[in-house]
Design a protein that fits this description.
Elements (H helix, E strand, L loop, with lengths): L5 H5 L2 H10 L1 E5 L4 E3 L7 E15 L5 E7 L19 E14 H10 L1 H27 L2 H16 L3 E3 L2 H8 L3 H13 L3 E4 L2 E4 L2 H7 L3 H10 L10
Antiparallel strand pairs: 1-5, 2-5, 3-4, 3-5, 6-8, 7-8
């Protein structure tokens, strides 16, 4: 049966069933911690609902989101290929659910099965592309473009056009002040691209919002759409 996680659903049934058997299904509320900066995680997570954020925090007190993961991927995948501690905090941005698998058990499957390894490495490659693009975006693009890109990405990952988000949360994700978020959200709302009231954002005009977003959105969307090339066993 489909699990609603794209990696799991791409696997052949016996391998998928093995991972489900060694994992634990969990409900994951908003702000649930999935990885702490400076530590090697104990688990990997395969989301079936919701969205997780990867946020880098600075000694100066600032922070910036460098990645988002939904049901397309695997959280803490980088820890499968090395023991370097995470450089960011990963937590649930939007509540959801997923399968939690102990890192050693998942690594054993990863190292011993070419099919799983192929899909995980595809995911890692896509996340590296997205992290690099978002990091550059945070530095070079205007807040209005970044907010449009961010809202579209959340909508794609959740398959919903309505998202409950506070200005404080948006400011943290964008690395901006709350006043900046209010200003640029107002610009997008007056243009008719979104409706933002009482902590809820609704996309009203997707085409217009895509035109307002920087080209980072289309680059990141293409990286996710390319997942997962069907595995073919070597001859």
């Amino acid at each position: 049966m489909p699990t609603e996680n794209r990696i799991l659903d791409a696997l052949t049934a016996p391998l998928r069933e093995r991972l489900v058997r060694i994992g634990k299904p969990l409900e994951l509320p908003v702000r649930a911690s999935l990885c702490v900066a400076g530590k090697v995680p104990d688990f990997v997570y395969l989301l079936t609902r919701g969205v997780a954020s990867i946020v880098v925090r600075f000694q100066s007190g600032g922070s910036a989101e460098v990645g988002m993961i939904g049901n397309e991927g695997l959280i803490n995948a980088m820890s499968l290929i090395g023991s370097t501690p995470s450089q960011g905090d990963t937590f649930m941005q939007l509540a959801g659910a997923g399968l939690r698998v102990p890192l050693p058990a998942f690594r054993e499957c990863f190292e011993g099965n070419a099919e799983l390894r192929s899909y995980v490495l595809q995911n890692i490659q896509a996340q590296m592309v997205i992290t690099s693009q978002v990091s550059a975006c945070n530095r070079l693009h205007e807040a209005e473009e970044r907010l449009a890109r961010w809202l579209l990405t959340v909508a794609d990952l959740t398959h919903q056009e309505n998202v409950s988000l506070t200005q404080e949360f948006l400011a943290e994700m964008l690395g901006s002040q709350r006043t900046t978020v209010a200003l640029v959200a107002g610009v997008l709302q007056r243009a008719g691209f979104i409706d933002y009231s009482r902590g809820t954002v609704r996309i009203m005009n997707r085409e217009g919002l895509e035109n307002a977003a920087c080209n980072c959105y289309s680059i990141n969307r293409a990286a996710l759409a390319a997942l997962y090339v069907p595995y073919r066993k070597p001859a």
